[in-house]
Recover the amino acids of this structure.
């Protein structure tokens, strides 16, 4: 079946502009995660959505970052007033949560460059 | 102390050899353990998951888990140049699916 999709694949923006990144999870996956990966670094957890529960926003680095998800479908990650340190690949993953396995499958990512 | 630590590498092995990748974690209550492969410029790809002590084999890959030692490893037998990538260890510790990733080990398999 279709995997996780993300758009856009690349985004170049000027410092101070707002950007919106989109993630479409695997159909039937109730959990959705956003991660950030800076060049040459590991994955940094940003936010987690599980069904209609309140999201875990503990990884969001500042109040310039926000995310939404409607039900168990598409999610958008919004970065306001972008800064150069926001330049990174933003990865979305989704998983089942029944059965306790929580295997996460990643989308191709959005490469954000802030100039 | 980092929550998930991997041997820093880079690791270089000849084609056909066994590559051994190691990972330790700090939360003794961790429940699930994953290995991801990440090619340069690509997103992580899940290759192995392990939940109980012992070995789990899938083709040329074997994951080993020792919860008492808080240690998980990945063995790649008959390594191929196509195995050259960064390998990420990930650990789930909470009541839901949030993963903590190690920094990754770069593996190079040379012909």
């Amino acid at each position: 079946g279709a995997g996780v999709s993300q758009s856009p694949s690349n985004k170049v923006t000027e410092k101070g502009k707002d950007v919106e990144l989109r993630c479409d999870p695997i159909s039937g996956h109730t959990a959705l995660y956003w991660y950030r990966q800076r060049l040459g670094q590991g994955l940094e957890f940003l936010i987690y959505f599980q069904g209609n529960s309140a999201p875990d926003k503990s990884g969001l680095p500042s109040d310039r970052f926000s995310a939404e998800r409607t039900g168990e479908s598409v999610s958008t990650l919004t970065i306001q007033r972008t800064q150069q340190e926001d330049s990174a690949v933003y990865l979305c993953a989704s998983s089942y949560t029944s059965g306790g396995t929580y295997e996460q499958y990643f989308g191709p990512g959005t490469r954000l460059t802030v100039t | 102390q980092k929550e998930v630590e991997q041997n820093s590498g880079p690791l270089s092995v000849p084609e056909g050899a066994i590559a051994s990748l190691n990972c330790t974690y700090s939360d003794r209550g961790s429940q699930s353990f994953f290995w991801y492969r990440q090619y340069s410029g690509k997103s992580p790809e899940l290759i192995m998951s392990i939940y109980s002590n012992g070995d789990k084999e899938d083709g040329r890959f074997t994951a080993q888990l020792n919860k008492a030692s808080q240690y998980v490893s990945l063995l790649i037998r008959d390594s191929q140049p196509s195995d050259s990538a960064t390998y990420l260890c990930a650990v789930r510790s909470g009541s839901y699916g949030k993963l903590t990733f190690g920094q990754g080990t770069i593996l190079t398999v040379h012909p």
Notes: Chain B touches chain A at residues 31-32, 34, 36, 42-46, 49, 51, 88, 90, 92, 96-104 (CB under 8 Å).
